[in-house]
Design goal:
This protein has 495 residues and is an alpha/beta fold. It folds into two domains: 277 residues, Alpha/Beta hydrolase fold, catalytic domain (Rossmann fold), CATH 3.40.50.1820; 147 residues, Roll (Nuclear Transport Factor 2, Chain: A). It has 15 helices and 15 strands. The chain has a nine-stranded mixed sheet, with helices on both faces. Helix 5 links the parallel strand 10 and strand 11. Helix 10 packs antiparallel against helix 11.
């Protein structure tokens, strides 16, 4: 059965993005998606060290320096002025002047040319720097992070400059500004309660939120499985929290929802996976969460479902094999192609948004290198000891070997429970091509529902025009129609 949903009205029925390569977490975004990254550079011996990167997710080697927030009015004027001066110099293109303020580690890690590349990519993907807006400060073990919220087109980016005790720049961060979450109109907070619990899987303990409708059960129930990267339970992406939208929207509709922090979010680079594969990254914890959900009071055990977004959807056939008790599965923007092909396609798409960069020698060489890395993944000679640096995004060979030969859409044919496959038409990360692959493989099944939303992006947020990374930095919500269709599927699916 198929639905073509125009916009977000009528009948209607969800991601990462970037990853920490050191935590051995792959990502489904692109290597050039700078605007959505948290760039962490230098920082000496502070709690935030790392290296500048063109990865779409952070490549931090330590955690970002944080501490006690100091009220804006008490920020030392000389530091506030210094921060604003450095931001203005970057906006003017005076990167050599900025680097003069760096300590030795920073200067080596982020020379002027690299800083220019990062800043220019940020402006290209966010609409350009407009003006600073607000200054605040934190204290962190002798270091003094000063944060300016910069207005870039429609996006707000926190520019965090970490000063040492000699007023030298020891760290530089760019991060989408977070705003106070406001529930979408389709959420009724009075219709459900939320409680904090934890998903436990051996030594792994993942903080989680359980949303339970008020009134008499038993209720149908869903567990939410993230996309790639170190996602929190809300799949927070700048000001957007698609999993919170989904959880509270479905709870309003009378469905129990469990969402949890991903192990790479909780443990970061401390996560020590002996074999860094999707089994450890996603499958094992999804199954542990599903088992926990089925133990919740008032859950109807005959109507428990698993929903996967992006990478989570791609892996649903592998999850389904281990979850025969599930009544059905929801695949939102699910990858159907080989992961390495998807990464390459994403990079090509982003370059197409800026035709001028197609002739840029650095951009061309970067794409050529990625193509070379993709071919190495496909090479029958790929071995477990192949250096990760030779592979896409620095993801270890064991990860690629685990995915070798895995065809998600074909594997889904073995699932005997009902499926909902949903796709946004403005999604450049996982595209209509993937959706068609799912449809081609499963269209002969009466218990599979296909839903296509022309105006929705990878986060299932409505937009218009050419899809760009910068739109992820603009506050939005999962379209109401998506929540309605998931609710209808969960409420009516018959195994």
């Amino acid at each position: 059965m198929e639905k073509q949903v125009e916009g977000c009205t009528g009948l209607s029925p969800l991601g990462g993005a970037l990853s920490d390569a050191r935590a051995r977490v792959p990502l489904l975004c692109v290597a050039m998606l700078l605007a959505l990254a948290l760039w962490l550079v230098g920082c000496g011996n502070s709690s935030g060290t790392g290296s500048s990167s063109t990865l779409p997710e952070s490549t931090d080697t330590t955690k970002e320096a944080t501490g006690t927030t100091i009220p804006p009015e008490t920020v030392p004027p000389e530091l506030a002025d210094r921060e604003l001066e450095l931001v203005q110099l970057m906006a003017e293109g005076s990167f050599s002047q900025v680097v003069l303020s760096f300590d030795e580690t920073m200067a080596a890690a982020l020379p002027a040319a690299k800083l220019a590349e990062v800043w220019q990519a940020l402006e290209q993907q966010t609409g350009g720097f407009v003006e600073p807006s607000g200054v605040r400060m934190e204290t962190a073990g002798g270091y003094r992070p000063v944060i300016v919220t910069g207005l870039f087109g429609e996006a707000k980016i926190d520019i965090r400059i970490v000063f040492d005790d000699q007023d030298r720049v020891a760290g530089l961060f760019f991060k989408p500004s977070e705003t106070a979450y406001v529930s979408p109109s389709y959420v009724d907070p009075a219709a459900f309660t939320e409680s904090e619990i934890a998903v436990e899987n051996g030594e792994i303990r993942l903080p989680a939120t359980l949303s339970v409708p008020l009134g008499g059960g038993p209720f149908p129930a869903v567990v939410l499985v993230h996309g790639s990267g170190p996602n929190d339970r809300d799949e927070t992406f700048g000001p957007n929290k698609p999993f919170r939208d989904l959880a509270q929207g479905l709870a309003t509709a009378g469905i129990v929802v469990l969402r949890y922090d991903k192990r790479t979010f909780v443990y970061g680079q401390e996560a020590d996976f002996s074999v860094p594969t999707v089994k450890e990254e996603t499958v094992d914890d999804a199954l542990a969460a599903f088992a926990l959900l089925r133990g919740v009071q008032d859950v109807d055990l005959s109507r428990t479902f698993i929903l996967g977004h992006s990478l989570g959807g791609m892996l649903m056939p592998r999850i389904a094999v281990e979850a025969p008790q599930a009544a059905g599965f929801v695949l939102l923007a699910a990858v159907a192609r080989p992961l390495e092909d998807l990464i390459l396609a994403q990079n090509r798409y982003l370059l197409s948004l800026d035709p001028g960069r197609n002739s840029d020698s650095e951009a061309e060489s970067g794409l050529a290198e990625l193509e070379k890395q993709v071919q190495k993944v496909k090479d029958p000679g790929l071995a477990a000891d192949t250096p990760a640096v030779e592979l896409p995004l620095g993801i270890p060979a064991a990860y690629w070997l685990d995915l070798r030969g895995y065809e998600p859409a074909t594997a889904a044919k073995a699932i005997d429970q009902p499926l909902l496959v949903a796709q946004g038409g403005r999604d450049y990360q996982v595209t209509e091509q993937d959706f068609e692959m799912w449809r081609d493989a499963l269209s002969d099944r009466a218990d599979v529902t296909f839903a296509f939303y022309p105006e929705l992006n990878h986060l299932f947020v409505e937009g218009e025009g050419v899809s760009r990374p910068s739109e992820y930095l603009v506050e939005g919500h999962v379209a109401e129609g998506v929540v309605e269709d998931i609710s209808a599927f969960v409420s009516t699916a018959v195994r």
